[in-house]
Fold this sequence. Notes:
There is one protein chain. This protein has 3 domains: 14-164, 3-Layer(aba) Sandwich (Alpha-D-Glucose-1,6-Bisphosphate, Chain A, domain 3); 168-385, 3-Layer(aba) Sandwich (Alpha-D-Glucose-1,6-Bisphosphate, Chain A, domain 3); 389-475, TATA-Binding Protein (2-Layer Sandwich), CATH 3.30.310.50. Helices cover 38% and strands 21% of the residues. The protein has 16 helices and 21 strands. The longest helix has 18 residues, at 24-41. The chain is globular, with a radius of gyration of 22 Å.
Amino acid sequence: MADHTEIRFGTDGWRALIARDYTFENVRACAEGVCRLLEASGEASQGLVIGYDTRWGSPEFAAETAQVSAAHGIKTWLADRVVPTPVLSYSLLHHQAGGGVVITASHNSGLWNGFKYKPFYAGSASQEIVDELERHIAAAQADGNIPSMALADAEASGIVERPQMAPPYLANLANVVDIDAIRNAGLKVGFDAMHGAGAGYFEAALGTGSTTIDPIRGIRNPAFPGMGQPEPIAPNLAPSIDLARNGAYDVVLATDGDADRLGVLDEHGNFISTLSTFALLCFYQLDVRGLRGPVVRSLTQSSMIDRLAALYEVPVHRTAVGFKYVGQTMMDVDAVAAGEESGGYAFRGNIPERDGILSGLMFLDLMVKTGKRPSELVAMLAEKVGEHHYNRLDVTLGPGVSKPDTQALAAKPPERIGGLRVLSTETPDGVLYLLENGFWGLIRPSGTEPLLRIYAEGDSPQRVEEMLADLRIASGN
């Protein structure tokens, strides 16, 4: 029997190097697994939505997926152009489909592509669904029985349609954020799409008004030049930072390759940490909009959320890393906001999934409603919850390098990390060190890349760097 690539879904989909493991054969196996999953669950009759990002071959891989679903007789809505992941997810709800597929590797480098699966509720697939999907994919690889229908024939028969997915998504935005107020606020906004799927969406959402959107890296380029990868963090935002430092904008928003994550630069070109951004967006929901309800955060999100929630007397639910945990808890408790450290945030009234576009619009509305510039918002946040600083260190795990034994690390923690006493450890996802004064550090193997991620939150930038150094030593890497 021929050897097959072992296809495993991490915290958000399967990702692999294009041409090495990410091949048409393996994408067909994934598509077949999705079809068998839908048939087994009785949801095949509801149909499948398929979207794709700006990466090499993404339109072709999406078409290949549609040809498999069409051969199964599953009604398929295949995006007529590049779409962000949150737009595809909303389209799933719009069509009341049984499932959705996005061809994207999110923030990975241009050498990678990926396959995300969204169940009927339009969020990240739960671990139970992922486990079942992987079994169906493995079975499809083993028996090799993967049917396919030519796309032209599928479209001619009507089993495959090519709708515009943006209009329903854009129409819903006005239900959860004050589009008119933003449009007429006279803001100068830079938007760095990082050559990804979010290009044009802020302009489309706001239309014509006194607020202007200046596109930065808005042209499709699958190589993602000038950045390590299309992740909206400071090291990848050099062109935007230069423009902002020259006084070009009131704020710069940036979205990752599939536009489900948000990065923010203030009016001086300083990167606002993803932890502070989520805390400010929670403030927007709880204070500006006056909503009440639980807040959900991953264990790598900030303890600022706990302090902010206490001010507004709402509960906080903490989850493992990954939106398959964050989003599920959001649905379970009807949270007003849910977020993780990587810049992915979700909000009541939209989808139980990360949405970089809606998050960016909410940040703009927060500026409008408070009359404050981004740097002033960060200062206001510190006044409310105290000084919190954060950073993350990614350590590449080379071939043959084993991941650290997090249980062993938790059993023998150092007495201090960055000078702060270690109060206790937990192992919900990696090893979490709970420190004095509400701060923390985390050592965690990535679920999507050959990386060891090391996180730290402390009371000063210098403290955070000391914490990262101590955590790396503790990890043995």
